[in-house]
Amino acid sequence: MSTTSERSTRTIYEQVQESPEFTQLRSRLRRFVFPMSAAFLIWYLAYVLMASYLPGFMATKVFGNINVGLLIGLMQFVTTFAITTIYVRYADKHLDPAAERIRKHIEGGA
Amino acid sequence: MSLIAQSQSGANVGSVLVNIGVFVAFVAVTLIFVYRASRTNRTASDYYAAGRAFTGPQNGVAIAGDYLSAASFLGIAGAIALGGYDGFLYSIGFLVAWLVALLLVAELLRNTGKFTMGDVLAFRMRQRPVRAAAATSTLVVSFFYLLAQMAGAGGLIALLLQIPTSNRLGQGIVIAVVGLLMIVYVLVGGMKGTTYVQIIKAVLLLIGAAVMTTWVLGIVGFNISGLLGDAVEASPKGEALLAPGLIFTNPVDFVSLGLALVLGTAGLPHILMRFYTVPSAKEARRSVVWAIWLIGLFYLFTLVLGYGAAALLEPGTITTANQNNAAPLLAYELGGELLLGLISAIAFATILAVVAGLTITASASFAHDVYANVIKRGTATPDAEVRVARLTALIVGLVAIAGGIIANGQNIAFLVALAFAVAASANLPTILYSLFWKRFNTMGALFSIYGGLVISIVLIVFSPAVSGKPVNEATGRSGSMIQGVDFHWFPLDNPGLISIPASFLLGIIGTYIGGKRSVEPGKFAEMEVRALTGAGAEKAVAH
Predict the structure, then answer these.
(1) How far is CA B205 from CA B33, B208, B294, B350, B387, in A?
(2) What was the pLDDT predicted at B246?
(3) For B197-206, B407-416, B425-434, which range has the lowest pLDDT when averaged over its residues?
(4) What is the ipTM of this complex?
(5) Which of A103, A104, A105 should we substitute to test contact with B (largest number of B Cβ atoms within 10 Å)?
(6) Of A78, B137, B355, B490, which has the maximum CB count within 10 A?
(7) What was the pLDDT predicted at A4?
């Protein structure tokens, strides 16, 4: 295994970093992961705050013994599974092909 | 004396022979895998990263095995059985946290690092100080987590082998034997052996929990509302069991814990290290997806099991003293001594597998970051590095045994929450800054890691979790770790609310103090391009 020997190829990384294809890949990644992270963190914190400060509201029965708190808690599971699935689709379609092309370019040219 | 009365002490239920038999069978099967794994354990990459040859799904199951610790299974089921809704918050935090790992950390880390968290943190920084800092926080977080796991062993031993918790010597001997077994796994099997142990354990744990969940639901006619109603009727807490507020009486504390849980996972070194065992970033992504589904499913099971224990066990069976045994006692109620034997053996296997994962992580960090890069300045041969790693694993294992004997009996979900707070404070800010913030530098990393570490630990030491909680009249014991003294001045059990933002802030302050001069121009370009494209990433080893 030779891993750390080719550090002199720095310049190609700098070239790639400035290339339009890479900047587009980076903005596609950031445009997805930053807002999505903010969204799920806000949604989670809203849940935690509701559980902390509105216990009476959380205890409101919706049907049978199922209350608002339990439903919102389970909704956290649903959104987690949903975001996971959406991200995988997005990455497959919008991130992986470009990343693959750039990687081949670098490893072929190095 | 009826079995129920006996079970109140958490001991003398079930058959010791059955319990031992199931556990020995698990050990025998896993040892075979570990031995087979040892035959391909040649290089550093084999020992630390299992040759990067596991598939995404395999690694996802192993992550579930690594993550679903005794705290998840025993701690959460017990917390829900006793404290109802508040126990559920743990599971939600532990699950949602995986989105941080999925979206922001896993793939980028896999592409830039080699064996440890320190590889990523030090990538474009001055190597020696940053690696020393990364190793320090890895060792501290792993130690907290180790203690949490070992502390859960005592109650389980009482149940499994009918050695009461009052028999400190007998319990200590069993903890030592388990610790030695774990050391054998790590030394012989390396990361590959450890991974197999985690996969086998995860499969058993998920099947065990699924069977018990279906059983409980079957008893109540698959009527969740009915199950909750039964739990309310049987619990001394009544309706309060279904609403927040039984465990966390201080809302600010609840928010602090919630923050630590959701931001801690992506800073746990033993979880981060698992991403190096797959061949590519895409496989790392698949691992997280598998892990999220399995872990989410498991937490839904624990919700049913917790309320199931509250509903189906004789009222008063679960107390604060034996709450970690709620799931095993429920197993006994459902399926008698055989199911109890199975579930307790699985719970025990859980402790074993998680502790093995922690030990290999701590040893890798010491050997790879401290020995090879800080002491030998990158000149150590891989063979020497692996030798040091094995020696460190032995020492960490012995420390775990000693710590486990001392910490025996502490509430494990709470101890794990503290480990999460330290991980979220000391590790996550630096990981995110070094992946996404160009200006970030060595000084910023050191400020954030050491600052987060010191602040979170100091706040824990002076928190009511350690000293000064009022004495419970029923048990005659204080809810704090140390009895009979009170030196607390920090009002919260969990430091996350203060220590996590403080560490993010310290990263920024340190960076501006450190100045603009970067260690090696072009290093950020290399890191960013590698992180996003996988160019130059470590490849899998073909055997």
Answers:
(1) 18, 5, 11, 8, 33
(2) 83
(3) B407-416
(4) 0.90
(5) A103
(6) B355
(7) 47
Concatenate the DSSP letters of all residues of B305-340 into one string.
Answer: HHHHHHHHSPTT-S-GGGGGGHHHHHHHHHHHHHHH
Token pair in block for residue B192: 């590959």
CB contact under 8 A, B242 and A36: no
Position B94 confidence tier, pLDDT thresholds 50, 70, 90: very high
pLDDT of residue B11: 45
Sign for the CA dihedral angle at A97, A98, A99, A103 comes to: positive
Segment B221-229 shows an average pLDDT of 89
Query: Exposed, middle or buried by CB within 10 Å (0-12, 13-18, 19+), for A46?
Result: exposed
A88-102 CB burial, b ≥16 within 10 A, e <16: bebbeeebbebbeeb
Which of B9-23, B147-161, B278-292, B462-476: highest mean pLDDT?
A: B278-292
Alpha-carbon gap, residue B54 to B62, rounded angstroms: 10
Interface contact flag, A80 B99, Cβ < 8 Å: yes
Segment 2-61 of chain A within 8 Å of chain B by CB: 3, 6, 10-11, 13-14, 16-17, 22, 25-26, 29, 32-33, 36-37, 40-41, 44-45, 47-49, 51-53, 55-56, 58-59
Query: Does any CB of chain B come closer than 8 Å to the CB of residue A67?
Result: yes
Instruction: Tell me which DSSP letter residue B59 carries.
Output: H
Amino acid identity of residue B134, one-letter, is: A
Residue the block writes with tokens 């809810």: B479
pTM of the model: 0.91
The pLDDT value given to residue B539: 81
Cβ-Cβ contacts under 8 Å between A and B: the total is 165
Helix extents (H) in B381-441: 382-407, 412-426, 428-436
Give me the pLDDT at residue B429, please.
Answer: 96
Residue of A56, A46, A63 lying closest to B85 (CA atoms): A56
Q: Which residues of A touch B259 (CB under 8 A)?
A: 45, 48
Residue B238, number of CB atoms within 10 A of its CB: 12
Q: For residue B28, how far is the Cα from the chain centroid? A: 24
Confirm if B139 and B365 have CB atoms less than 8 A apart.
yes
Dihedral sign for Cα A51, A37, B428, B408, please.
positive
Which of B93, B293, B525 has the CB atom closest to A14's CB atom? B525
Residues on chain A touching B99 (C-beta within 8 angstroms)? 36-37, 40, 80, 83-84
Q: In chain B, what residues touch A51 (CB-CB under 8 Å)? A: 85, 89, 244, 254
Please identify every stretch of chain A with a pLDDT value under 70, giving residue numbers as ranges.
Answer: 1-11, 109-110
pLDDT tops 70 at residue B237: yes
